[in-house]
Amino acid sequence: MLQAIHNIVDRIDFDSITSERKSGLDKLVVYIKKAKKQNQAANLNFICTHNSRRSQFAQLWATLAAWRYGVDAHCFSGGVEITACNQRTIDSLLRFGFLVTSVGNENPHFQVQYATNQPPVVLFSKLYDDSSTPTSDFAAIMTCSHADENCPFIPGCDVRIAVRYNDPKQFDDSTIEHSMYDATSFTIASEMMYVFSQINDHDN
Length: 204
Known about the structure:
It is built from six helices and seven strands; from the N terminus they run H-H-E-H-E-H-E-E-E-E-H-E-H. Helix 3 links the parallel strand 1 (42-47) and strand 2. The chain is globular. Helix 2 packs across helix 6 (177-201), helix 3 (54-68) packs parallel to helix 6 and helix 4 crosses helix 6. By secondary structure, it is α/β, with parallel strands linked by helices. It has a four-stranded parallel β-sheet with strand order 2-1-6-7. It has a three-stranded antiparallel β-sheet with strand order 3-4-5, with helices on one face.
C-alpha cells in the first residue's frame, strides 16, 4: 500500500461507526462470507445515480479493503445515467495519496493506483449493467437514495443492500468542498475496511 494511503487507513476507527450503520453493513458481510464458504469470489456492484462520486469512492475503497484483508472479491460500480467520474472525486483521491492517470477527455477512464504491486482500479462513469459489470451472482449495493428509490429492480443480483451516503455534490464550489469530499471518502473507506475486516477473522 502506498505510504500516504497507509497513513490514512491507520486513522480509521471502527468504533466510530454507529451500531445502526454496522447493522446495514453486516448484510454485506453476510453476503461476502456466503460467497467465501462456496469458494467463490464475491461480486459487488456499487450503484449510484450518475456513477460519479459515492459509488466510485466505494468501488475503489472496497477493492483496497478486500486486498488488505485477503478477501476474494471483485468490485464494480455503475449508475442509471452515464456522466463522468467527477474531477472533484479524483482530486480527493489525489489528496489521499492515490496515484492517478487519465485516458480520454469525455467520460475519461481514470487508472487509480493504491499499491505498487497491484493493478490499478479503473474508474469511469457507466450504467450498472455495463458490459464490464457482472450480469448475475452479484450484490447490488445502493450508495444513494435516488438510485435506491428510483431503480427498484436490478436484474441478476443475488441481493440488494442499501448503504447510502450523503452526496458531497451539495458542497461543490463552496469553501468546504475539499473537506466534505474528503470526509465522504474517509467515511466510505472506514466502512469498507470494517466490512472486509469481518470476513476472515470472524468466520462462523
